[in-house]
Amino acid sequence: MNETKREVERRRLIEETLDESYGECLLKRQEIARIVESALFYFNGERYFLHSWVVMPNHVHVLVTPMGINIMSAIVHSWKSFTAKEANRLLGRKGVFWQEEYFDRVIRNETHFRAVVEYIEYNPVRAGLCALITDWKFGSFLGARASRPL
Question: Is the predicted pLDDT of residue 16 greater than 60, yes or no?
Fold first, then answer.
């Protein structure tokens, strides 16, 4: 099922707005970004294969392949639940941390896969948050994360 022009435009506008770093931008705090990073790696290789990721100031991009009976909604719920509890504890607050929904898409082929990896890993550069991809601390770009298994 291909995305309609309307869906593509809606997604583009959402991404553009997110990249402009509206909202609280709590993920720009390194200690909170590390919580998210740890959550992404926790079940890597057990519930899913983590291919690519980046923690932006107010959102996260992740490319994973669920393993076995694990489904995306359960995987995302696990990440959001753990990170919300830990981040709220760190911030000394309670309540909602993440927006309720998330956006996903099916990867159609190797070309699409590579395009999504590039989109994710270059997101901080495109958003004007750094000049070089290697300058961004919380992402899967191989040059910045050579010590991390992907």
Answer: no
